[in-house]
Design brief:
binds buta-2,3-dien-1-yl trihydrogen diphosphate; Cobalt-precorrin-4 Transmethylase, domain 1; 13 strands; 4-stranded parallel β-sheet; single chain; binds iron/sulfur cluster
Length: 316
């Protein structure tokens, strides 16, 4: 079997930063460190940090008084920030800077007096956070039908922002629908969809031109990983989202010569290795990587943590 890896795949800069924030906090402080929501949507990442002393909660009411608290990469609503401040919780914010950028942009549109539309998926942590960061009525749309159903006059000045991990193609369709439905529309085209999401989608599309089957390593609650699998389906390639090598079914590979393999932005390299090891149980495997974009994005750590890291004994 030929296994062709997508380039780029796996961790993005926001995920690296978020995990590092928890790890630094655990090194610098006495465990436990409380993390609100999965730091990134991957059980393996969460379990590893849990073993080092991180405690994952969904609600700040589960955080004891005075305990170090980390917000996940997906961001939080204003009300969560306010609750943490009111309780005096020491917070490290691991919200990806590209998510924060969307919050800032959405608030700016609201201040301009525009009706803000968020393109995103209901119930997703990032969408809950973004809706709760804009102090104005905000309308969520996920489908073309949602755009048609918006109860607003067509001359309403609107502005849209998007979730960072959407399908680029679907989002273009929704933006076109907003343009057809409203006469005065402001928005960033698809550039709220982050570089990592866009690059991984382009790479998987290229991969599907040469692969008979697509494996996407990622969690079922990971938006960006699900979008990668959907591209495989669109390209007419049998496509599976797998948590790790144990999720592989050998029957999928009957008659398959070339397997395309990629990983979502929250899936660690070791899980890709685990999948390759599982494929080797089925038969001999030759591995190559498809040419693609080299990423060199890096986000700095929150200032307090950087300063603290420099004064830690291990850094001295
Ligand atoms: O899988 P993730 O934790 O998040 P979604 O793709 O579900 O948004 O990946 C990191 C992305 C962010 C924010
Ligand atoms: Fe940030 Fe994009 Fe990574 Fe999400 S997928 S953490 S928005 S870089």
């Amino acid at each position: 079997m030929q296994v062709i890896l997508a380039q780029p795949r796996g961790f993005c800069a926001g995920v690296v930063r978020a995990i590092e924030i928890v790890e630094r906090a655990l090194e610098l402080e006495q465990a436990p460190v409380y993390v609100r929501h999965e730091i990134v949507h991957n059980r393996h990442v969460v379990d590893k940090l849990r073993r080092k002393g991180a405690v994952f909660v969904e609600d700040l009411s589960e955080v004891p008084a005075g305990a170090r608290t980390v917000f996940s990469a997906h961001g939080v609503a204003r009300s969560v920030q306010e609750e943490a401040a009111a309780r005096g919780l020491p917070v490290l914010d691991a919200t990806c800077p590209l998510v924060t950028k969307v919050h800032v942009q959405g608030r700016r549109y609201a201040r301009m007096g525009r009706t803000v539309i968020l393109i995103g998926h209901e119930g997703h942590a990032e969408v809950i956070g973004t809706m709760g960061q804009i102090d104005a009525p905000i309308h969520l749309v996920s489908t073309i039908e949602d755009v048609a159903a918006l109860d607003l006059p067509s001359d309403t000045p609107i502005a849209y922002v998007t979730q960072t991990t959407l399908s680029v193609d679907d989002t273009r369709g929704l933006i076109a629908a907003l343009g057809a439905r409203f006469s005065d529309v402001l928005g960033p085209d698809v550039s709220d969809i982050c570089y990592a999401t866009q690059n991984r989608q382009t790479a998987v599309r290229d991969l599907c031109r040469v692969a008979d089957l697509l494996l996407v390593v990622g969690a079922s609650n990971s938006s960006n990983s699900n979008r990668l699998r959907e591209i495989g389906v669109e390209m007419g390639v049998p496509s599976f989202l797998v948590a790790d090598g144990d999720s592989i079914d050998s029957a999928w590979f009957d008659g398959i010569e070339t397997v395309g393999l990629t990983a979502g932005a929250s899936a660690p390299d070791e899980l890709v290795d685990h999948v390759i090891a599982a494929l080797r149980q089925i038969g001999p495997v030759a591995i190559s990587t498809l040419d693609g974009v080299e990423e060199n994005m890096q986000f700095s750590l929150p200032p307090g943590l950087k300063a603290a890291a420099h004064t830690s004994p291990s850094a001295a």
